């Protein structure tokens, strides 16, 4: 059994780290201690001391202490801890990682955890776990536990919370994942609430043909997670039905997946089938959160916490050009499917975002900007959620992967 890495600042949280160290080791698991503190003396000796962490981060500990710049010191310790954590994993020395901290400690530890692969246990006990945890989790399976009280000594409440954390990471490392009866080729797919019928039907078809489909919710983090796993070599093909995150990246909505969305399949050289799912909408929070410059646009209250804004003809032209450029990068077999009767559940006649002219601009931009001969353009007189459209995309992906349907 591998060891558990305990990573954190032993000068300010040493008592608490010693507490979880004892519990973990009493459960029969060895530990590796990495000290990321800077100024104070560590509460107990670490296996990897703070001087080594600072050195790996590109600076000497003495210079960090002399400079007395907390922000700069955190940056150095983040870099060093991440490199050392990744090295410990690559060397087969750790099977899990746990940390405790406030905002600074969480920043350092979470940055290191994000260097580890999905599936390796990662547990962060933090005072900031009840807020926006996206900066700490990123696209990895970091488990965050709210500390409730500040991590400041062992008391009646903190002892229970920290003990639970120690038991949890110990259980994760000791546990054995049940083996599946059969490992099937993996396919990545993207879905939104308003493209669910399409993806559900395509998924069912692919699973009948012997594939396993992992569906990612196209909410920004979902797209990023998928791209990361594609780069990691998990998938044989990609069914990228729902490219809506590009609307938010272009216009300034809240569900952007960043400027590199749609690049991973090309870099990995694997087949992909792409469509225009939910390119009719930009996402905001509640109606009161819509920026002033968009208040006069075509808005639709999806629910109490989500407001959708219809993309314009000009925006669709830009989206078509961007998506075409991304797909052109893939020199493996690729295809883009154009649903000529609508790109989302609310883009059809009688629905709020019905927009034939906007879609016409989108499709024209895609046709005009696909320049890679390896990319097929397939137009169907269907709505994106029609069964025939979904099944035809699934069939095409099977074909592109070199299998017979």
From TrEMBL:
Top-level taxon: Bacteria
CDD domains: Tm-1-like
Domain UPF0261: 3-176, 184-401
Residue ranges crossing the lipid bilayer per the database entry: none
Pfam families: UPF0261, UPF0261_C
InterPro entries: Tobamovirus_resist_UPF0261, UPF0261, UPF0261_C, UPF0261_N
Entry protein name: Uncharacterized protein, UPF0261 family
Highest classification ranks of the organism: Bacteria, Bacillati, Bacillota, Bacilli, Bacillales
